[in-house]
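in:
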């Protein structure tokens, strides 16, 4: 395990198409675009884009993946990490303020609550994309390649693994991300994931 790197990011550019997609809206109207703009203005300065990450040696044997601090039985994760000698494990969050706004508008404006949910999903994915690109560029500088990031809950990668990932990164202390007994993260717009790193010829 390498040292845990903690980083804060400036606000990524908003992607309205992705917000609409997360909201389940195939098209947009002036009214909806206006609500999205209102929600973005209300969020201005309230989100904190923070990540923590560390690199671990990884061993894949059949459908078992050994990270040293945890062993995971998952055919999907084993396939994703096949040929990798290490992996970056990270946690990312945009903070608790958007949860408060979702709760605030849940009863007084369901449409706004839905849009805040969609914006939150778009924001955390945009943050993860930035971190992912950093890991990719660092790997390429060493003649290596990265695999698509893989989160617990995808395929047969058990959600329970999130607890081990948060603990080993000390994410609760470092960026304020915790996990409750129902395996739900707080803040809700948070992500943990694995990014496999392999030699270029195996990428």
């Amino acid at each position: 395990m390498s040292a845990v790197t903690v980083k804060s990011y400036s606000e990524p550019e908003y992607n309205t198409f992705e917000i609409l997609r997360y909201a389940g809206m195939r098209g947009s109207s002036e009214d909806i675009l206006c609500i999205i703009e209102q929600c973005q203005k209300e969020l201005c300065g309230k989100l904190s884009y923070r990540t923590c990450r560390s690199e671990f040696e990884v061993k894949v044997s059949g459908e078992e993946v050994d990270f040293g601090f945890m062993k995971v039985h998952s055919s999907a994760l084993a396939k994703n990490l096949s040929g990798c000698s290490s992996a970056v494990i990270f946690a990312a969050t945009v903070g608790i303020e958007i949860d408060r706004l979702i709760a605030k508008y849940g009863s007084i404006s369901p449409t706004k609550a839905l849009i805040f949910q969609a914006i939150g999903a778009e924001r955390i994915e945009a943050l993860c994309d930035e971190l992912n690109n950093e890991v990719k560029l660092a790997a390429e500088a060493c003649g290596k390649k990265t695999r698509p990031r893989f989160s617990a809950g995808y395929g047969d990668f058990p959600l329970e693994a999130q607890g081990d990932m948060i603990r080993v990164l000390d994410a609760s202390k470092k960026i304020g991300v915790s996990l409750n007994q129902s395996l739900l993260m707080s803040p809700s717009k948070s992500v943990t994931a694995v990014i496999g790193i392999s030699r270029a010829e195996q990428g």
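note: The CA atoms of residues 29 and 35 lie 10 Å apart.
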